[in-house]
Every structure is written in C-alpha cells, then in structure tokens.
Design a protein that fits this description.
Elements: H1 18-37, E1 41-42, H2 46-60, E2 66-73, E3 86-87, E4 93-101, E5 104-113, E6 118-128
Antiparallel strand pairs: 1-3, 2-4, 4-5, 5-6
Length: about 130
C-alpha cells in the first residue's frame, strides 16, 4: 500500500481509506470555492474574467492533495449602467476538482441543477490504483 506523506493523517480515523479521504478533501475544495466565490464581483471584460477565474482556480489548487481545480462562470449578464456588474451566484458557478490521496483519485463537481433548484456538490468518479 502506497502511503501518503501527510503529517495530518494521524488526526483522522485510522480506518479511513485513501478514497474516503480523497472524497473528503474534494468536498472541502468544492465548499471552499462555493463560499469564497459567491457574490464575487466580476470585471466587465471577458478576457479579465477569464484571467480572474484562472487565478482563482490556481489559488484553490494550492490546498493539499489537489491535482486540478477549474472554476467556470456561465450565463453571466452584465448591464450597461455604472451600477450594474456581473457577480457569481449559485446558478452560474461551476467548479471541478481532482484530488489525489495515496492510491486514490477523486473527481468532484459543483454546479447548479435545475431539477433540484440547488447548487449540488458531488463526487463524479473514484479511481483506486492497485
């Protein structure tokens, strides 16, 4: 069994599998992204929005065991008035994360689901190496 260099491991339940820990970490990443980004004002220029989201993704990927984080904003409406600006709300944010812990890799996603009327955070895939 491949062990992870994780000084915090001793504080977790000893029977926790690598997959369970990776899923836990993915949940933290998605929740952090959601609560950090909600209401964030966005620049009016599409190129500036793209840069901002790339930097936000980079920052969120700095958390332990993250292999990739991608933040996207869809259907952004920005008005022409000086007092109208785009901002992230639960309906237009999408975040995907890949976490690797030991022999496991987990893909998580946050996106708005119309049928639930809710920004659902979920695990989409788990891969365990032998």
């Amino acid at each position: 069994m491949e062990r992870v260099s994780d000084p915090g491991r001793k504080y977790f339940y000893e029977g926790l599998s690598d997959s369970e820990r990776a899923a836990f970490e993915a949940g933290i990443a998605l929740a952090t992204a959601y609560h950090y980004l909600l209401g964030l004002p966005l620049p009016k220029k599409p190129a500036s929005i793209k840069k901002l989201l790339a930097h936000l993704s980079e920052g969120l990927a700095a958390q332990p065991f993250r292999e990739r984080v991608e933040v996207r904003v869809k259907e952004l409406r920005i008005g022409k008035s000086a007092y109208r600006y785009g901002r992230i709300d639960p309906r237009n944010i999408e975040v995907s994360v890949v976490v690797r812990y030991g022999r496991s890799r987990v893909w998580g996603r946050l996106s708005w689901l119309e049928e639930l009327n809710y920004p659902l955070m979920r695990i989409e895939k788990v891969v365990r190496r032998q």
